[in-house]
Amino acid sequence: MSAIVDKNTIRLTGSVQSSDFQSGEEGFTSTDVFYALAGFDDKAAITVHINSPGGIATEGAAIYALLKSHPGRLDVVVEGIAASAASLIAMAGKKVTMAAGSVMMIHDPAAVTVGNSDDHSKTIEALEALATAYARVYAAKSGKSVAACREIMKAETWFTPEEAASAGFADASSAKSGAIVAAFDYRQFRNAPEKLVALAASQNWGSSNPPKAQKTPKSKEKTMPQDDAANAVKSRMKAIMKSDQAEGREALAEYLAFETSMSVEEAIALMNAAPNPADTSQQEYHPPRTMTMNAAGLNRGGMSPSASERAGAGKRANLSANMKRRYGIE
């Protein structure tokens, strides 16, 4: 992952998707952010630094919801770039500051579907719903109408710090320079600034997996009658909460069930990959990302993932309770 906690700062670097340690491609997910937030008190003031070209659209929405649900003040600083799904994440900040030389990009989500006409129709419906949800977030931050934000998204609009502040998507620009933009093949974007295209070419940033636009996971479900939709949602939540993988990971299961649109299969796969607090065999295991954080002194005293999770168990329970109250879940 590249969601690093340093005192009251969370740094989100790379694509909005899982890191690939074989290729060296950095990334962060809602699970990474969930654990990062678990280490903070409810009233803690947090600053989130973002340098990301975007990634999976539903992950971006989940991370936005997580950051927005923090009871204390949470500000955002864009260093380098906040594009695609990462621009939505940036909207979670009470104050959004653009570092000198940084850029923000807002556009429509995209997906690839393989199947019959019903499958494609369902994907279209899902993309329209997701795009509308994104537009509402952008509208709430900027004061613009949802329709106006949809037009900005459809046009794939790029903003300098001053332009983002003028449009209402940022609150301030800083004279202090931020980090170089995150590595990504910016040639994949339709209207990417020439300097980013040239930089990607000169640095040979040709990625194997990154999205051309915000990705949504391919739906494995068939089209269902409208009157079955509510039951399907309830069944999905129950299946996630009652799965064997939820044992020992109750807070994560609650979050996946209530705060994301992940399928049951995707949620179970994610929980399988997450450390289990009851599994003592993991207490001394330090994967590459943990060793990197330990070496930099940024891993809360060098605790392993499971030890760190136990230390934040109470705070994580509060976070889950806040989410459930926010959405009226008993």
UniProtKB/TrEMBL annotation:
GO cellular component: endopeptidase Clp complex
Entries under CDD domains matching the protein: S14_ClpP_1
Polar residues bias: start-end ranges: 202-211
Entry's Gene Ontology BP terms: protein quality control for misfolded or incompletely synthesized proteins
Gene3D superfamilies: 2-enoyl-CoA Hydratase, Chain A, domain 1 (3.90.226.10)
GO MF annotation, one: ATPase binding
Keywords noted in UniProt: Cytoplasm, Hydrolase, Protease, Serine protease
Region Disordered, annotated ranges: 202-227, 301-330
Family note: Belongs to the peptidase S14 family.
NCBIfam families: Clp_rel_HeadMat
Protein name: ATP-dependent Clp protease proteolytic subunit
